[in-house]
Write a structure and sequence with these properties.
The complex is a heterodimer of chains A (653) and B (72).
Chain A (H helix, E strand, L loop, with lengths): L2 H30 L4 H32 L6 H14 L3 H33 L6 E5 L2 E5 L9 E4 L9 E5 L2 E4 L1 H4 L5 E3 L4 E2 L4 E2 L4 E5 L7 H12 L5 H32 L3 H15 L2 H20 L2 E3 L2 H9 L2 E5 H5 E12 L1 E3 L5 E3 L3 H14 L6 H12 L9 E7 L3 E6 L2 E6 L1 H6 L10 H8 L4 E7 L3 E11 L3 H10 L4 E5 L4 H11 L3 E3 L4 H14 L4 E5 L5 H6 L2 E5 L5 H6 L2 E3 L5 H36 L5 H20 L8
Helix pairs in contact in A: 1-2, 1-4, 2-3, 2-4, 3-4, 3-8, 4-9, 4-22, 7-8, 7-9, 8-21, 8-22, 9-21, 9-22, 10-21, 12-13, 16-21, 21-22
Chain B lengths: L1 E7 L4 H12 L4 E7 L4 E6 L4 H15 L4 E3 L1
Antiparallel strand pairs in B: 1-3, 1-4, 2-3
The chains are: A alpha+beta (653), B alpha+beta (72).
């Protein structure tokens, strides 16, 4: 409890005790006083005002101040008017007791909100307070902002890693759960990348810093979570708009209740004013105004504990309502770790029309050599795998031999070397260069087309096809399961986009149970197909990519999910939801949290409005009393808040 | 220019919405978000006039909820 909450608690206890004393000890005494009724009434008011003002003085003061500023009809005002009305009608005990009850409710509310704030603030505890740096053989603590790229820092056992970097000495296990939700510790040793926000569990680690503090993973994540509640969901915007119409409408209705019946029927005004006051108290929209953002906040908080970062409540809502989910294949559904599987030399006719079988070891070496040179400047994972394979064979690329490499986007690379021009890429590249005609006429091409195991990279010189390299990529372990669960959750259509050949793409899609596949796409095609899907759909469309090269699609989709965002700034920037590790099962969890959040938000809206309406009606016909009205206000708020807090329990997901 | 400030003792969600609206109307403020849950004010305002604007922001906050304070 904060100081303020404690103060309120003491006030409540003191005035409650005082009220009981007055009721059972002082009341009979006042009754025995030998004074006339008027004076006795004044004494009673004066006595009961003491507990009333102790517990509710700040409410009355606030109401007065707000009225001066032109803010009428807030909670404070309603409570003040309602309780003063009770005093005027002679219900002194009730006036004080209702104020106590109201304050108890407010206290509960404030504690509940603080608790859920805290559970999200636990992420903020990841922010490092200091960095250990060795100076003259001694450890010195510096502020994280004071350490630059390339500096060496030391992380002791039990400490959080303060900055991103690479381990240059020591080995240990690190707890990554705060960032990834993964409970199994990860082993790190010399050469491992390490992220701020990990916790070093065992030994001493020496880390070379690779990013400044402001750019570090932990800072980016905190920034994102703290900004999350500023992007409001439709339900939240609805409530804001709703409150704008609701409050004046209720005030108008209350005035009617107070004026119309007595004027028409000639009954006492006091009775109907009391009912109107009650009507006003119960009508306060606080239950909705607090519990709905709290629900989304809770959902986002629970997700962040599972290693899923959500940038705004609107995305959580859209994910829950989504009907189509579009996946990028490489790195998202598959591991994105490529390995050279096979090298095949071409069997074809040479210039003189004679058949030459070039599929021997020397030729295969030549094919991989050309490919490795072509990919020397490429960052593409496939290119890297070819280079790696070449290096593993004990060779290395001599870049001085390369005259020029030209990348043809989505097709491959044209390499110019001393020994001539070479083409390394897919069938389209070769067709454009006029090296092969139709795919099917070339037996080697059609053989390669049949090959389902992976991506095929063709290698050709300026005259003929030399052969091809098969590169494979494994499907992630739980992808099929995740896609199945998504369809159980009501995702009607799952779509896969890939630049890969059709045979490979369809084989993967079949294994995973994906309903629609678009293959052989150029990077720009992915975006236009996604746009078509978005235009066709009536429900939000989700795009899942690995965040490295699908930034435009991530931005364009209603919900862009980046997988494996840990340490990737571009992904964190472009995506709406970032899954820190690269587990596809987390998409299922994120959607579960979204659906649950929406359900709870709806429950709160329906529950609060129904109870309020019921008490309003009962109040007007004279059945409900002030106690019920206060329950309808703060009681309903507390129940709705407690309901929202259920979302915070992330272990369920 | 965007800046974030911490708010202390922001106790009612409705007040947060009212503050947000009032702050948005201040001259030189492009956008403002008051987050009840995070207890923060994120403001996008003219940098040159920031001092003046923040004074007005403080006034706005005090008007809506006198208990709430802006931590500069």
């Amino acid at each position: 409890m904060t100081k303020k909450q404690k103060k309120n608690l003491y006030r409540i206890i003191i005035s409650l005790v005082l009220l009981l004393v007055l009721k059972f000890a002082a009341d009979p005494l006042i009754g025995k006083l030998d004074v006339n009724a008027e004076i006795r009434k004044l004494i009673e008011i004066a006595v009961y005002l003491i507990p009333y003002l102790i517990v509710g003085g700040n409410v009355v003061a606030k109401a007065g101040r707000n009225m001066l500023h032109g803010h009428i009809f807030d909670e404070n005002f309603l409570m003040t008017v309602a309780t003063i009305g009770a005093f005027a009608l002679g219900d002194y005990t009730e006036a004080a007791a209702v104020m106590i009850f109201y304050q108890v409710g407010t206290l509960f509310e404030s504690i509940a909100v603080a608790r859920s704030r805290k559970s999200i603030a636990s992420l903020a505890a990841l922010r490092p307070d200091y960095v250990n740096v060795e100076r003259d053989g001694e450890l010195v603590k510096l502020s994280p902002e004071g350490v630059g790229i390339g500096d060496t820092i030391i992380v002791l056992a039990g400490e959080k890693v303060p900055l991103d970097g690479e381990v240059i000495d020591g080995e240990s296990y690190v707890d990554t759960s705060a960032l990834t939700g993964e409970s199994v510790p990860r082993r790190v040793s010399v050469g491992s990348e390490i992220m701020s926000g990990y916790i070093n569990q065992q030994g001493k680690l020496v880390v070379r810093v690779s990013k400044e503090f402001g750019e570090s993973t932990v800072c980016k994540i905190l920034d994102m979570v703290q900004n999350a509640s500023s992007r409001k969901s439709r339900s939240e915007n609805f409530i804001t708009r709703f409150a704008r119409i609701y409050t004046p409408a209720v005030v108008g209705a209350a005035v009617l209740v107070a004026v119309l019946p007595p004027v028409i029927t000639g009954q006492a005004f006091s009775k109907w004013i009391e009912r109107a006051l009650l009507f006003l108290v119960v009508s306060c929209p606080c239950a909705l105004v607090i519990s709905i953002p709290l629900g989304f906040f809770g959902g986002i908080g629970a997700a962040s504990k599972c290693g899923i970062l959500i940038k705004g409540s609107n995305y959580l809502e859209a994910l829950a309502n989504a009907g189509t989910i579009v996946f990028d294949k490489t790195g998202t559904l598959t591991k994105g770790v490529f390995r050279v599987q096979e090298i095949v030399g071409a069997v074809c006719s040479d210039a003189t029309g004679e058949r030459v079988d070039t599929d021997d070891a020397d030729e295969r070496d030549r094919i991989i050599e050309i490919a490795a040179y072509a990919e020397a400047y490429s960052n593409h994972p496939i290119g890297r795998s070819i280079e790696l394979y070449y290096e593993q064979q004990g060779h290395s690329v001599d870049k001085s031999l390369i005259r020029d490499t030209k990348e043809v986007s989505g097709k491959g690379i044209v390499l110019t070397k001393d020994s001539g021009t070479f083409y390394v890429g897919n069938a389209k590249l070769l067709q454009e260069a006029g090296i092969v005609e139709e795919e099917k006429e070339e037996p080697i091409l059609s053989a390669a087309m049949q090959c389902k195991d992976g991506t095929v990279v063709y290698v050709a010189d300026s005259e003929r096809l030399l052969g091809y390299i098969v590169i494979s990529d494994e499907i992630k372990d739980n992808t099929a399961e995740a896609i199945e669960q998504l369809s159980v959750q009501g995702i009607a259509e799952s779509v896969m986009l890939t630049g890969d050949r059709r045979a490979t793409a369809e084989a993967v899609a079949e294994k995973l149970g994906i309903s629609k596949t678009y293959s052989e796409l150029l990077p720009q095609d992915k975006l236009s197909i996604l746009e078509e899907i978005i235009a066709e759909g009536t429900t939000p469309t989700v795009f899942v990519g690995d965040g490295i090269n699908d930034a435009p699609a991530l931005t364009r989709a209603d919900v862009g999910i980046a997988m494996g965002g840990l340490g990737q700034d571009a992904a964190i920037e472009a995506a709406d939801i970032v899954i820190m590790d690269d587990n596809p099962g987390k998409i299922v969890i994120a959607r579960k949290i979204g659906i649950k959040t929406l359900a709870i938000v709806k429950q709160n809206i329906v529950f609060a409005l129904a109870v309020k309406l019921l008490i309003m009606v009962l109040g007007v016909i004279g059945i409900a009393n002030m106690w019920m009205a206060v329950f309808g206000d703060v009681g309903v708020s507390v129940i709705a808040i407690l309901n929202s807090m259920r979302l915070l329990n992330h272990k369920k997901y | 220019m965007k800046k974030r400030y911490q708010l202390e003792d922001l106790d009612c969600a409705n007040c947060a919405a009212k503050m947000e609206e009032a702050i948005k109307k201040i001259e030189g403020v492009n956008d403002a978000v008051v987050s009840f849950m995070a207890q923060t004010l994120t403001i996008d305002a003219d940098e040159e006039r920031l001092d003046k604007i923040m004074k007005q922001v403080k006034k706005c906050i005090a008007k809506v909820d006198s208990d709430c304070t802006l931590i500069m």
